DNA sequence: GGTGTTCTGTTATAATATAACTCATCCAGG
DNA sequence: CCTGGATGAGTTATATTATAACAGAACACC
């Protein structure tokens, strides 16, 4: 099993030092959005996050949460999952990785696996003279638990 | 340069024989959606396609175009580009490939490159005991033309 | 001619995302 | 001090993307 409390603390402290180093602000809204994603430990839609914020009296309109997510994504602390139109806290913040996501269509869990750069996308881009800026690598299927359950 | 007329004809004839083989119908709406995507030779949003259909008196409501797109995607004739929430005719229909997309953020062109199976996604999945059903591989950046222009 | 199947038409609405403007705060330069 | 720029939050309204739900046409099979 996984020590979720210490995993959250580590991620938050990484976020703090990252923001301090970059000279940007981890404001209460931004910090709370990151905490929510870390606590849930799964991908949440922007409006799910917004509902949580609203319950806590912290910014009741969509732009608030979308701006916070933009910030966290630019900082590399959160990833957007294109396949789900959802967002998840990075599970390997600060490790210099390309994110690869495995999304279970049954239990909806998202596994972020660390991967080195230099896969098919990079090779394809090189062949075409294309300069990559960001990449999306996502797979949908059945996770190990759901496979054994079935 | 690229002989677009013959490329469209080839793709349509592949679509016809594929549907005949599978015993499914390439109806007028479905065929026209595929033609539009082939003619444009780029990624179109569902509502852009819908506007074109409407002009031709062929199905004026969103469900019509979304249903046609579902069909064409299931048939492997069209791909959904997750990064753009858009759709593009497959440039390698019938060649048994995993789609890899290079999306230029400047000219919005989408390059579909053929790629073999067995990249990072598959390796990551194997390590996690995850059974892949579909994959998304997309990169955003600058295409060769836009790089030389800049 | 009934009966199941497939496809389309239509209305309404859900879910996701952004534009545009306002206001508060902080802080460096004068 | 006080002021002008920068940053971030609040708010209203709206744009964009996608689906639910149900009705009717067309056809195929028995
Ligand atoms: Zn990550
Ligand atoms: Zn699962
Ligand atoms: Zn393809
Ligand atoms: Zn370009």
UniProtKB/TrEMBL annotation, chains A, B:
Q: Which GO terms describe its biological process?
A: negative regulation of DNA-templated transcription; regulation of secondary metabolite biosynthetic process
InterPro entries attached to this UniProt entry: FUR, Fur_C, WH-like_DNA-bd_sf, WH_DNA-bd_sf
Looking at the keywords, is Transcription present?
yes
Tell me its cofactors. Answer: Zn(2+)
One MF term in the entry's GO annotations: DNA-binding transcription factor activity
The alphabetized UniProt keywords are: DNA-binding, Metal-binding, Repressor, Transcription, Transcription regulation, Zinc
* Binding positions (Zn(2+)): 104, 107, 143, 146
For the keyword Calcium, the answer is no
Q: Which domain of life is it from?
A: Bacteria
Cellular component, GO, one term? cytosol
A family per Pfam:
FUR
Per the entry, the cofactor note is: Binds 1 zinc ion per subunit.
Q: Which residues form the signal peptide?
A: none
Q: Which PANTHER family match?
A: ZINC UPTAKE REGULATION PROTEIN (PTHR33202)
Family indicated by similarity: Belongs to the Fur family.
Question: Protein name, please?
Answer: Fur family transcriptional regulator, zinc uptake regulator
Q: Whose protein is this, by species?
A: Paracoccus solventivorans
């Amino acid at each position: 099993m996984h020590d979720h409390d210490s995993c959250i603390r580590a991620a938050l402290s990484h976020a703090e030092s990252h923001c301090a180093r970059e000279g940007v602000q981890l404001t209460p809204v931004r910090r709370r959005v990151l905490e929510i994603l870390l606590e849930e430990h799964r991908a949440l839609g922007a409006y799910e996050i917004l509902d949580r914020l609203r319950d806590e009296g912290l910014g009741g309109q969509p732009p608030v949460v979308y701006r916070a997510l933009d910030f966290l994504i630019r900082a590399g602390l959160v990833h957007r999952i294109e396949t789900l139109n959802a967002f998840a806290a990075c599970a390997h913040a600060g490790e210099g990785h390309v994110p690869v996501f495995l999304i279970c269509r049954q239990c909806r869990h998202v596994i972020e696996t660390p991967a080195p750069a230099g896969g098919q996308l990079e090779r394809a881009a090189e062949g075409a003279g294309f300069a990559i800026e960001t990449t999306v690598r996502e797979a949908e299927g059945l996770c190990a638990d759901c496979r054994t359950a079935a």
